[in-house]
Specification:
Elements: H1 2-6, E1 10-17, E2 22-24, H2 36-46, E3 51-55, H3 56-62, E4 75-79, E5 98-102, H4 108-117, E6 120-123, E7 126-127, E8 130-131, H5 133-142, E9 147-150, H6 154-162, E10 168-173, E11 184-185, E12 199-209, E13 212-221
Parallel strand pairs: 1-9, 1-10, 3-4, 3-9, 4-5, 5-6
Antiparallel strand pairs: 2-11, 7-8, 10-13, 12-13
Length: about 220
């Protein structure tokens, strides 16, 4: 539906957070907030998607592989407006399955290095000084990647929500409290809104993954 009516993929945003809404410590490290059982469930869920998207900060701080359990052809999309990520990052271990979305602010030599590896580099226009996600999702849809999972970080998810690109969310909640004002919130970068205009989730599904909880729902915003 999303691809046909809006020429973009169906997009699910995923976050793993504490009870007080924190996804990482003040130093940016997020491994591991949820349990090993929850992380396995989340990896299995990746197999339902054609592509998984993440931001530069997640690659730099956590160095994830972003693999599924059964699917070996999952496309990884890294969003990095200035091309700060390392070509040696684990996510690029199978470069032919990787997209790198950047802008003309990126160094041309670094772009050529990634291209020589086999990474598909997509030069995107800028939107609010970042990679234009509407443009990027249009490119993904044209390539037949009709279902995309966003796995952080907070800035990327916030940007996608603000641009109206997120259809639903998977929120994994661990029964933990971080309590640090400097720790990272699960979503950042949204404009200040009145309580009556907040983003909300509907058609909720709640699943217990001992000891964590998964909350799933469709994204809506009161206008």
């Amino acid at each position: 539906m999303a691809k046909v009516s809006r020429r973009r993929p169906y997009v699910v945003a995923k976050s793993a957070q504490t009870l007080d809404g924190k996804v990482a410590a003040a130093n940016g490290r997020s491994q591991w907030i949820t349990s090993s059982q929850t992380r396995l469930f989340a990896r299995q869920r990746r197999d339902r998607f054609k592509a998984i998207m993440t931001g530069a900060e997640t690659v730099i701080k956590d160095n994830p592989r972003l693999t599924g359990v059964r699917r070996g052809n999952l496309i990884k999309v890294v969003v990095d407006s200035t091309l700060r990520v390392s070509p040696r990052a684990k996510v690029f271990q199978l470069p032919e399955l990787c997209w790198l979305a950047t802008t003309r602010r990126a160094d041309s030599k670094r772009i050529r290095r990634f291209e020589a590896m086999g990474v598909r580099v997509v030069l995107c226009p800028r939107r609010r000084d970042r990679v234009s996600l509407p443009f990027l999702f249009d490119q993904l849809a044209r390539a037949g990647l009709e279902k995309v999972l966003i796995e952080g970080g907070p800035t990327l998810i916030g940007q996608a929500l603000r641009d109206g690109l997120v259809d639903s969310m998977d929120i994994y909640i661990a029964p933990k409290i971080m309590g640090d004002n400097a720790a990272l919130d699960s979503v950042v970068g949204l404009p200040a809104l009145a309580v009556t205009r907040l983003y909300r989730l509907t058609n909720l599904k709640i699943k217990r993954i001992n000891p964590d909880i998964l909350v799933q729902g469709d994204v809506h915003r009161n206008r």
